């Protein structure tokens, strides 16, 4: 059975490689969105304020490690690329459109396009643009870290089992292979089922899904920021009787239509004109903060399993975890969790990445996010933490003049200050200080994992 899966995967990757290797998918990309810090790209103004539906952009240009340091290992944790709306978003969008398109006359010139608008997006799956984001990430990874790769040291790749995550992983490997002119074609080696213990998903904690957060907080914020926007829509389409949730759903058509059609949607212009995106952006910040972030008591513990896997790889010692790891997959010596490699890439979801950030101590906030008043000084921005195809990268390096390895960590290319392990001005911590700083993970989440099953 296992052999069959491996053969099937190899075939899949080969086919993919043959398809993609020769000619890249024809997506009319402005590559500015990939590399620079300015990234309006094909979607133009405001597309970096679409919360967790922001197309990938580099928050900062990549900075090389300090001189005298040589990277010896890289660990990438990456979100799937852009997708269609989920089933529940789909339902909310349809309900809102039904009201808006059901009026006898739309009076506002700005809303005229709604009359003939057809909503025909898919559900849940990666969109071609999202596949391209993942493919581009793979080619960028080869370009940046080629010196870590040889025929015995290919990236070891895992993915959580959701189709869009698996396809992001295989598009990444295809991009990686193409960039190496077909010389290095990594395989997707492990797919971890989302219905079991899974360090690449937040579904292993049953009590989390029955929590009232983040729905309570997002509802409060939506009620706060949408009323004047809803009033403007209802004035332009008398009788539509839209409410706050309808407005929230209609705004989301901007990112979803744009990434699906690969051009800026008219919904973006409509809601930019109504100054809706500052409020929409903050909705995503609140959503992530109270879903698996610092605002959710059962959130961060979902990131502990991945952090313990990361520590195992960085220190070349077996995984020690009592939370979401699957002890069969991660057993010492298991082919599904090899140690001692130079390159690891894992594919996942935004909520898991947020749990990892919070369990690790990244993006600490001076005050919790307030669900009725946005703090303009917050550094917790969903668009910068978990845009589509977001990536957290941990580089391990040796530096001349020191016997100790060092680590630095980037989120969407922005080097994180790592105050918790006393990083230097380049963001470098000694590996031992970094390990030491991760006591919450090493202690299995200080007993919080048990609360998942209460
Ligand atoms: C890339 O993702 C798309 C989904 O958008 C999928 O159809 C395709 O098979 C994937 N390609 C590879 C090489 O995995
Ligand atoms: C983007 O902003 C620029 C400068 O503010 C403006 O000239 C342009 O019309 C805007 N484009 C869109 C699509 O909003
Ligand atoms: C909607 O489509 C019809 C039929 O193609 C066309 O006559 C009408 O002008 C369109 N309305 C708008 C507002 O674009
Ligand atoms: C652990 O992984 C193995 C191998 O994939 C799988 O058969 C098993 O169901 C998993 N168990 C749990 C509890 O996740
Ligand atoms: C947005 O505002 C611009 C500038 O006033 C206008 O040209 C455009 O028609 C408006 N678009 C929508 C959809 O409201
Ligand atoms: C709604 O209120 C916000 C916050 O005061 C403001 O920025 C925005 O321009 C207003 N929008 C409309 C359509 O009046
Ligand atoms: C799966 O997780 C549960 C809860 O943490 C744990 O009791 C169990 O041993 C794990 N199973 C495997 C195969 O790792
Ligand atoms: C949020 O801000 C409002 C308005 O400033 C304030 O009344 C409320 O107490 C704050 N809530 C929290 C939990 O800090
Ligand atoms: C594994 O972690 C537990 C705490 O979760 C600790 O008590 C134990 O000593 C660790 N084992 C090893 C071999 O490091």
Automatic annotation (TrEMBL):
It comes from the Eukaryota. Transmembrane segments: none annotated. One of its GO terms (cellular component) is extracellular region. Pfam families: His_Phos_2 (PF00328). Disulfide bonds join 69-399, 254-268, 421-429. Keywords: Disulfide bond, Glycoprotein, Hydrolase, Secreted, Signal. The active site is at residues 80, 350. It catalyses: 1D-myo-inositol 1,2,5,6-tetrakisphosphate + H2O = 1D-myo-inositol 1,2,6-trisphosphate + phosphate; 1D-myo-inositol 1,2,4,5,6-pentakisphosphate + H2O = 1D-myo-inositol 1,2,5,6-tetrakisphosphate + phosphate; 1D-myo-inositol 1,2-bisphosphate + H2O = 1D-myo-inositol 2-phosphate + phosphate; 1D-myo-inositol hexakisphosphate + H2O = 1D-myo-inositol 1,2,4,5,6-pentakisphosphate + phosphate. One of its GO terms (molecular function) is acid phosphatase activity. Its main location: secreted. It is found in: Secreted. Residues 1-16 form the signal peptide. Monomer. This is Phytase A. It comes from Wolfiporia cocos (strain MD-104) (Brown rot fungus). The lineage of its organism: Eukaryota, Fungi, Dikarya, Basidiomycota, Agaricomycotina.
